[in-house]
Structures are given as structure tokens and as C-alpha cells.
Predict the structure.
Amino acid sequence: MIRNFFLRTLNKYASKWLVLLIDISLVFISFFIAYFIRFNVSFNFNFSNLLNQIPFVLGFSLISFLTVGSYKGIIRHTGVRDAFNVFIASSLVCLLLLLAVTFNVFFKVIDSFYIPKSIIIIHYLVTTLVLILSRFIFKAFYEVLSTEIETIHNVLIYGAGDSGIIALNALNRDKKYNYDVVGFIDDNKNKIGKKIDRVLIFNSNVINKKFIEKHSVDQVIISIQNIKPNRLLAITDKFINLDIDVKIVPPLSKWIDGDLNANQIRQINIEDLLDRAPIIIDNPVVQREVNNKVVLVSGAAGSIGSEISRQLSLYNCKMIILIDQAESPLYDLQQELIQKGVTNFVAIVSDVRDRFKVERIFKKYKPQRVFHAAAYKHVPLMEKSPYEAIKVNVLGTKNLADLSNEYGIERFVMVSTDKAVNPTNVMGASKRIAELYISCVSKTSKKTKFTITRFGNVLGSNGSVIPLFKRQIENGGPLTVTHKKITRYFMTIPEACSLVLEAGTMGKGGEIYIFDMGKSVKIFEIAKRMIYLSGLRYPEDIDIKVTGLRPGEKLYEELLADGENTTKTYHDKIMIAKTQKIDNSIVKIKIDDLSLNFDKLNNSELVALMKTLVPEYVSNNSEFEILDVKLKEVKIK
């Protein structure tokens, strides 16, 4: 009750005149203390002289405080600048007193007015100390009262460098929570055992279960600028195993006005832990190639297409044509770009399967560059719908490629997938056939340069495992993983789209560009990390259920097919796949035949035809495995 009374009282902002009155009172008390100190900590001094001098001291103090405005600061938010204002005000009081005393010595204006210089100096020092100290004491008193006991967090700061010190100060300033920094952790042996602002620096080797329990540590804040992903991964995994919440200080560039606030310290995202450095492709050639050009993006409402559109909107394109058959997502993208002030674009609901409609778009807008991202990509769904996979992934690509060729488009860039490499499913095989068709058209094209980009999974894309896990965690689990050993390559959507734009400037046409995606990552490990990063424990809070491989699914993805290797480009993260030679005329005839007759065939016949086009296509965990047996028997005969 008493605490609540004080808290209600302190929550009211004090009048500046009340602050001024308190400051004047403290000056009065300080003057008594100055005399007390000057006379050897005793009261053996003339009280009548002191009382005669008090009006002058208080008068000069009032003038100084009103001039400097030191009384106007909000006490509970006292900072260095407020303390400096108090210092200036008390210095001005001292200066005025010295000038007044010196003037009176020479001109004898007031006979009874004389203050020893030693008293003035002592008073100046005491006043400065008392005024500043009183403000910080009140601030600390307010913070203690306004902080609930149960909000105390015992934390360790990983990194005893400049960033770690700034993080410590940010935590100490935080009003919402009461952080108790147990210590710093650092790998530098020269720092171990020393203290920063009375906080001890520990070696990471001593941080174990016993240490955590002894100090009741519930958070570790990683405060190392430009930390490498593999080191971040190792640190995070260690503390995840100790059941501690792990947070990270954002990069310096994201601090507000160059200053760090405690609320900017964030949870680690799974994107931070993929054991690969982010790749930022900054090529001025991209700007030169798309500026003042009409650019068409198919599948513009999808994960990749929408990010390509966003990145293109940062350049000075003459016009960006966004086409997609998904009306609502396309509308959302349209509104997003409008809110950003982008005006040089048009969003058109259209389907790449509809050649007539797409050709009307080509005739009207005359695009000069095409980024083809429209595709069906969900492996299990396409395994049940080969017809749709062929119609969109193969024939949709064929429509756009043929029109690009006919209308003399400068550059056609196709977004492919690592699942097209040694495909084990209908989706991957359909994308591989689309690659083959682009290669065939590229050989005969006189003006259009055709390019293929091939990469793995993108984080946060529609159907990606990361948003699926997030939804499953929100629903209380379990998380579903198809196999404990399954691995995938990952990259962020902006990285993938930077690659696509980069590929739109490289080569002479006909190349397949491969992205260096780092190490493949176990999906099971990602699932465990996401559980821990959500503040939960595996398997106590949320379990992981192994469901078995889905139809057509691989354990390990590949970026190169058998017989393929790579050559370097000018960018160390982008390679060109040296593909196997194909008979372009025969392949093109087969694909043309497929486009004419696919609607007359059943699923098995369609897949059988796909296998003749892609000999390396061997079904896995699929109803179509029987076709591979039949083909094998035919070869033996």
C-alpha cells in the first residue's frame, strides 16, 4: 500500500517551480555544510555572519538557476546533459559570489558582506555534488519502486567489447524490466577475471548447468557485432541445451540514432542460424540493365516473384508488368507498392497457361525483359496432379519463352529449382523439362538471351518449412518432419531474388546459374532450434513427429546433375553449370508433342512421357515407381 502510494505520487510530474524550490533549499543546506567543513567539522563559526551571507547566496543561486534552466529537467529521466546543466548553474553561482566578494572588497558597498574564498569553493563543490546526486538518487528510487520484483531477469552478456558495454548500459536504463547482469562472457583470455563497471568477465568454458542454476540465469544476450553465423550457431546451440533464452543485439546500423535501447535486443531468428553468411549482391550493372526498360514478372504475387518486383521497384524501370493468376495476393502486392509510392507498374490478373492473354500483354506493353517465376512447386500436390505440373511448369514456360522469342525480348530469366536435378518427383521433372526447353530455344534464338537460375529452398516462401513450423508451434505442436536425416539448402528470399536479377545481366544466353548456398541443414535440427527459440523445450513442451518421406521426396537435394560440373563467374558465389549435351531438335520435338497431346493422356502416361524426356528422372516413394521398373525391363530386353 505504501509502495503504491509512493508510486502514484512519483508518477505525477513535479512542477518545475517545486524543483527550483528544492534546489534553492539544497543550496542553503550546502552553505551550512561548507562552513561546517571549513571549520574542521565543527560549529565553531559565527552564525550571524552566515545568516547575513545567506540572502546573497540564495539570490545568486536563483539568478543562476533561472538563467541556465537546470530546474526544468524531468528528474526521473535525469541524464548526463541534465547533470551538466546543474554543473554549469552551480559554477555560475560560484563565479557570481567570487565577483561580488571581490567587488565589495575594493568598493566597500556592503560593510557586513564578506565570504571567505575557501567557503565559496567548498560550497561550490558541495552544491554541485548534492544537486547532481539528489537527482540520480530520486531517479534510482523511482526506478526501484516502478519495477515489479517478478520482472527481474538475470542475464549474461556474451561479448565484453564496446557493443557489450553499450548493451549493459541499455539494460541498466530499461524501465520496463529490471535486468541484473550476472556477468560478461568473452573468449579473450586477457579479459577473463577482470571487471567492467563492477561486472565480472567469465570464460565461456565455466558456463555450465551448475553455473546457470547457482546464478539463476534465464537469458543470454549475444552482443558481438559482425558475428559469423557458424560462431553464432555454436553459441546458440550451447545455451539452448542449457535451457536458456538466447537474444542478440542488432547491428549498429539498426540502432536508433546511434544509440541502443533494451527493446531493440531481439530474439534470435532461425535465419540467423543457417551456418552461412548472407550474400549481398550489389552490382551496378543490374541498374544499368533495367533502367528505363519495360520489365515483365510472371508469378509476381508469389514469394520469389513479389520480391523480384520489390527489388525492381527500387530501380528506374520504365514500367514493371506484374502478372499472376492469384487475384488476392496480387492485389496485396499492388497495394504494398502503391503505399511505397511506386507508380511505374501495372498489375494484371493473367495465367501463363493462356497464351492468347499473355500475347495481348506483350503486344500492348512491349516488355524488354522477362523474369519468369510462375510455377507450381509443391512436391506432394504435383505428384497427384502431373497434368497441372506440365500445364503450368512446362507449357506456361513454353508460352512465355516462345512469345519472348517472337517479340524479340532482350533477356528471359527463368527461376528453376534444385529439385530439377536428378528429379525424383513430378514437380522436379516438370521443371527440368522446362529447363530443357529453354536450352533448346536459346540455341536458335537470334535476339533473346535465355538464362536459367537454379537454387534451393527459400526461407519464408509459401510452403517453406519455416512458416509451417511457426504455425505448428503456435498451435501447440507437434512439429512434423518427414525424416530425421533429411537435409535442405536454404537461402533468404532477398538473396534468391538478387541472384535472379544478377543472372539477368550475365552471360551470352543458354547458361544455368548455380548459387553457392553454403552447407545443407538438417530439418530436424531446425525444428529443435525453433522450439527452443520460441521459449519452449523439446520434447517436454512440444514434440517432433517423424511422418515419413512424402511421395517424390528426397533425403538430400542436389544442385548439379550427374555429369554436370561448374565454371566460375566474376562473382565468387555464382557458378555456371556445365550441363550435359542434348540433342536440341529431338528434345524440342518431344516437348512440342507433349504440348499437343498432354490433355489426351492419363497420369501414368504423362509421367512415362516425362521419363523419356528426362532419363535421370527416377521416382521415389511414389506410385510411379512401377514405371521405372517397366523401363528397366524394356532396356534389359
User: Anything to note?
Assistant: The first strand starts at residue 152 and ends at 158. The chain is about 45% helix and 15% strand. Residues 6 and 145 are 8 Å apart (CA to CA). Residues 2-146 form one domain.
